[in-house]
Recover the amino acids of this structure.
């Protein structure tokens, strides 16, 4: 965690309207967003949002529609300019770039996946996946070769020559994902990438993303309106409401310690057994030897079958050291906690 | 009676004299400027008349098949064009075809860039849109007369009048087609760092092409419709036969030539429409969206 964040959004405020500076001044004086909107007719999209995303993590921004999450993700590659604030990606100040530098940055440093895929309907799957490389100016044979590799990585072999409209939603988004991955950039922006898909397909895509991420270790900025999706795939999650960050933390932090009533509402319906990891709730005062031990990254659901036989089991860290124990009581208490 | 608020006679005289002055002083310049247009028209006409008649029919039949992938339209093309020939209207039909093709080509040349420019600039769109309305609603005789005065009677004023009449739908549909390109697809191109040029040629024009082709279809049809009026200022072709038929009260002459025009209209309408549809299916836009 000591390393610099890959994506740093600092005090981002975005105001939509014809006179954002006036509205910004009002916000600085401490007016609420409602007051600003009523008096100046400007809409506050984001208010003082600061987030940092570390290398190799999946950072999920979860928010309902109108929360400003799609606006937020578009700030990272400056599809939208903030009214005030600073944006750094890989240590570079994105806002100070001129148009050519910005295009260069988009071509090399950030790739994006869109909710409704954003594919080019007049091109084949192969040419769609190769699109970013084509923009970058790569030769045809190289970009097609790379595109083919990514098409097979996402499991679309045989569809190279199909056109987008011949594919199902899940397949289309695989094309979108392959197109972004083919860019080989460190940062991946995913704007509600799985939201347009059926639940079963969505869960399959989530699994695929997680298994790909194990190999690729990209820095992924993921936007969703689905809290379950957020806690399933996120290494860290930020909850956004009306353009403001409610809480940032690891999924189990949010589930165990929701910061306010708004977050509690989301947490209530979550299957806690699947989210809470034993490392977060274990009794670390006891490290005595035992026959059975689980990883501290295991979820409560994982240890439940063991409790059919044992009252408690040991917990070890990734290097196999004993770090605590987990008992039936602790698990039940964690699962039963209601607000 | 509507009261006279101020005298309008000086204004009229000023306009009439102004036009006369332009004709006297710049007439030659205008004629020279329009020479490429005449050259284009004449070379198309010469070429179409120099190739054997069956080759023209064959090429059109192949185009008809390529556009529709069915035998119906090619058969209609062959049969109806042979009938046109049998009626001794082949040369006139070719002249009409040449006029239409020249008018359409010139219109595309001007309308496409203008439509693209309109789609990128709200101000330009606001300025051009009412001009297009004017071009479409102003009775064509109103501008036909000054055009004839400037260029002299013949094919060139006919072509210019046709272009004025036939260009608006293509300009409008080019503008519309580009504006309708899926926003997210455009955003994706931008997110991948596409330059404005790469966006225009790689995304906007290909995706707007079915709409643009609908505009070309409209343009060819309007050009054909305009040719009857053009025949009065010496455009020649089938429409001149129609005009003569009216003048001599020879119903048969007017009827056969008129049917010849219908034949050309059907052929070119169906071929351009067929290509548009195929393009749409290829893109998967037949149901709109995505």
């Amino acid at each position: 965690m000591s390393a610099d964040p890959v994506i740093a959004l600092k005090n981002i405020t975005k105001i939509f309207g014809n006179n954002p500076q006036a509205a910004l001044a009002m916000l600085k004086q401490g007016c609420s967003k409602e007051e600003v909107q009523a008096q100046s007719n400007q809409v506050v999209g984001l208010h003082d949002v600061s987030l940092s995303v570390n290398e190799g993590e999946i950072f999920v921004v979860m928010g309902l529609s109108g929360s400003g999450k799609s606006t937020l993700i578009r700030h990272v590659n400056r599809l939208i300019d903030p009214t005030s604030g600073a944006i750094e990606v890989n240590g570079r100040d994105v806002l100070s770039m001129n148009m050519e530098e910005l295009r260069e940055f988009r071509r090399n440093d950030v790739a994006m996946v869109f909710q409704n895929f954003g594919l080019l309907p007049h091109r084949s799957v192969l040419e769609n996946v190769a699109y970013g490389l084509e923009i970058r100016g790569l030769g045809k044979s190289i970009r097609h070769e790379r595109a083919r590799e990514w098409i097979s990585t996402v499991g679309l072999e045989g569809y190279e020559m199909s056109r987008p409209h011949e594919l199902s939603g899940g397949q289309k988004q695989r094309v979108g994902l392959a197109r972004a991955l083919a860019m080989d950039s460190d940062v991946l922006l995913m704007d509600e990438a799985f939201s347009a898909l059926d639940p079963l397909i969505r869960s399959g895509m989530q699994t695929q993303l997680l298994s790909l991420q194990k190999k690729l270790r990209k820095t992924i900025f993921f936007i969703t309106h689905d809290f379950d999706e957020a806690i399933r795939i996120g290494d860290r999650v930020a909850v956004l409401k009306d353009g403001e960050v409610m809480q940032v933390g690891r999924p189990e932090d949010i589930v165990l310690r929701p910061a306010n009533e708004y977050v509690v509402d989301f947490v209530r319906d979550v299957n806690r057994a699947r989210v809470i990891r034993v490392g977060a709730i274990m009794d670390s005062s006891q490290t005595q030897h035992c026959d059975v031990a689980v990883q501290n990254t295991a979820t409560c659901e994982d240890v439940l079958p063991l409790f059919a036989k044992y009252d408690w089991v040991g917990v070890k860290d990734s290097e196999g050291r004993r770090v605590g124990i987990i008992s039936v009581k602790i698990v039940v208490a964690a699962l039963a906690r209601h607000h | 009676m509507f009261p006279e608020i101020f005298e309008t006679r000086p204004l009229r005289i000023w306009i009439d004299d102004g036009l006369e002055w332009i004709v006297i002083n710049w007439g030659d310049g205008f004629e020279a400027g329009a020479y490429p247009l005449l050259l284009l028209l004449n070379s198309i006409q010469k070429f179409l008349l120099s190739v054997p008649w069956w080759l023209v029919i064959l090429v059109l039949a192949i185009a008809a098949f390529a556009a529709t992938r069915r035998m119906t339209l090619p058969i209609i093309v062959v049969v109806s064009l042979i009938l046109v020939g049998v009626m001794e209207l082949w040369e006139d039909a070719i002249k009409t075809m040449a006029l239409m093709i020249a008018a359409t080509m010139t219109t595309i040349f001007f309308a496409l860039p203008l439509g693209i420019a309109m789609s990128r600039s709200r101000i330009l769109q606001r300025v051009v849109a009412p001009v297009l309305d004017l071009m479409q609603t102003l009775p064509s005789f109103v501008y036909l007369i000054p055009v004839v005065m400037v260029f002299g009677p013949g094919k060139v004023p006919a072509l210019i009048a046709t272009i004025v009449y036939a260009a608006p739908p293509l300009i409008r549909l080019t503008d519309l087609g580009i504006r309708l390109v899926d926003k997210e697809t455009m955003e994706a191109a931008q997110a991948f760092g596409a330059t404005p040029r790469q966006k225009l040629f790689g995304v906007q024009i290909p995706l707007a092409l079915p709409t643009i082709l609908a505009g070309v279809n409209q343009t060819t049809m309007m050009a054909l419709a305009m040719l009857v009026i053009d025949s009065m200022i010496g455009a020649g072709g089938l429409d001149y036969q129609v005009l003569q038929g009216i003048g001599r009260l020879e119903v048969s002459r007017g009827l056969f030539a008129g049917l010849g025009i219908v034949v050309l209209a059907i052929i070119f309408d169906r071929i351009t429409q067929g290509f548009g549809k195929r393009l749409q299916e290829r893109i998967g836009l037949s149901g709109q969206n995505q």
Q: What stands out?
A: Confidence is low (pLDDT under 50) at residues 286-290 of chain B. The two ends of chain B are 60 Å apart (CA to CA). The CA atoms of residues 31 and 152 of chain B lie 8 Å apart.
